[in-house]
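To fix ideas, we now present one chain and its tokenised fold:
***
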Amino acid sequence: MVLMTMIARVSDGLPLAASVQDDQQIGRSVLEYQNQAKMLFRKLNAQSPPQMTIETGQYLFHYLIDSHVCYLILCDKSFSKRLAFSYLEDLQNEFKNQYGSRVHTVSRPYSFIEFDNYIQKAKKSIMDARARRNLTQLNTELQDVQKIMVQNIDDVLQRGLAISELDNKASNLSLLSQKYKKDARYLNIRATYAKAAAAGVIVFVFVLYFWIL
């Protein structure tokens, strides 16, 4: 279940729109998660990963950044990751169409709070049984969500670790992995050539020996 949806401007973390599920499941702690979301918005920048999943207690934050706007949701850990990012992409497309040209002109929080009407429709659609049956079709339109980085909210907020640094570390690990694969392939080729050369020398000596005799 999607419990909270928030949209904010990346440059300064200004909230642009929001919708909170009226559910006893999160109750009074909803303010805590809203504050976490606002703190997260303030840590985002142009170098932040375009998509990320962040663990916070028994829930997950999923976010998507596009055109300097961050779309973020809070949901249960059991909620499908693919459906979560499909929902975020739906919001991103509609919000961009309606308000894309005005995002950088507003200065007060929640200037586009009326977007909650569309958020409610999108949420109902994604939770509809037919949407679940069409999950296979959705999968073909989404990138591989398994590659989306997962972090803990404490690492991102309390330890002050910039999200862009997390992205850099992931990139560095990927580059190192590729380098090791290339080195291993090169060493395997050299070993093969060495074995072939040794076999050639043995055959040459053997032939030369019997030729002389």
The beta strands are 2-9, 15-20, 51-56, 59-66, 69-76, 149-152. The first strand starts at residue 2 and ends at 9.
